């Protein structure tokens, strides 16, 4: 879970969630639907900031230190990661923060600092440094084990993520002879699920720490038919195809903004038998389906999967097949 930090309201320290369509932080003392360790993380960091007078970042004035707090919990391992996103490299009293976290949170395995000096809405910066413990924590989905770093995408609800990935695997309908491209592969979660039933799988991802985690995940799970490519999918997928590799099945798992048109155009050129689209935004899923249906494909079926109970958010897996003559 990720929590913005603000002290705009007359110096009052607010840690919680953004009000809808604003950058106003609503203070949250406790959230009943998240892991209890994340509530503890927020409480400890709040107390540390008050006790040692650590200022929150003010995005209007570009002053202060702490921008966001991120907590990650390995559901099956119990390992906990705390990531403090700061506006600069130097943060006073970090040793005291680690001591307070170790006292309050059983299973604390990692404390890292992510530095984001840019005046931007993007939460994480490019540089992350270890403060305590390991740079990653671990969790498992099904029979696979995964390394998770602060900058890597990993589904928050890993129990439901297993159902999501099993649905994608079912829709891919692999026999063991296919070459598969997993576009926007993150830490390789779906890639490694597919690799168990495909001849060869290629994962493409733009975030370097995620690719490093994916390579490590493949090695630790003893999967040898998965290759990972670092770079922008809009360029790397056409490059992969240009090198003579023609996937039989393509998996798409883009961010909320959906797929770049260059990615969809590359798919239309290579003409895979099936495209399995894992979407977190029905609006961009519909937009991208329209493009593919105009370029020789038919949407066959879709299966929503609820990873975010009691919210309007829903994941959806869609099967798209090439027209047969």
Automatic annotation (TrEMBL):
**Name of the molecule in the record:** 23S rRNA (Uracil1939-C5)-methyltransferase
Q: Which organism does this record belong to?
A: Megasphaera paucivorans
Active-site residues are 280
Single GO biological process annotation from the record:
rRNA base methylation
Keyword list (alphabetical) reads: Methyltransferase, S-adenosyl-L-methionine, Transferase
Q: Which Pfam families match?
A: tRNA_U5-meth_tr
Give the record's family classification.
Belongs to the class I-like SAM-binding methyltransferase superfamily. RNA M5U methyltransferase family.
Q: Answer yes or no on keyword Transferase.
A: yes
GO molecular function annotations of the record: rRNA (uridine-C5-)-methyltransferase activity
Q: Which InterPro entries match?
A: MeTrfase_TrmA_AS, SAM-dependent_MTases_sf, U5_MeTrfase_fam
The residues that the entry says bind S-adenosyl-L-methionine are: 155, 184, 205, 253
